[in-house]
């Protein structure tokens, strides 16, 4: 699914943030914001990606609960219909 691919891409980007910070810190004359602790890249780059990833996971959990609720409702309706059919015979 497209959303799964998007999620994996964002997680991979967060995972690569340390490497990006190291590359940017080595070229510190061009990129003045990157330090050895990675505070700038964490706040500007990783936090928004993680926030979006959390939103995607929350949507997945909501969809899962919704699907499970619908499935249980259908199971209960079928069980009730079978019981009614047995009673009418």
Tell me what the structure shows.
The protein is mainly α and 89 residues long. It folds into two domains: 1-35; 36-88. It is built from three helices and no strands. The chain crosses the membrane at residues 40-61.
Strand content: under 5%
Report the order of strands and helices.
Answer: HHH
Q: Enumerate the spans where pLDDT stays under 50 for 5 or more consecutive residues.
A: none
**Shape by Cα distribution:** rod-shaped
Give the N-terminus to C-terminus distance in angstroms.
47 Å
Fraction of residues in helices?
Answer: over 70%
Number of domains: 2
The pLDDT mean sits at 88
As an assembly, this protein is single chain
Summarize the main sheet: none
Estimated structural class: mainly alpha
Q: C-alpha Rg, in Å? A: 24 Å
Number of strands: 0
Number of helices: 3
Entry keywords:
rod-shaped, 89 residues, 83% helix, transmembrane helix, mainly alpha
Give me a quick take on this structure.
With 89 residues, the protein is mainly alpha-helical. The protein has helices at residues 2-15, 17-26, 39-88. Keywords: Membrane, Transmembrane, Transmembrane helix.
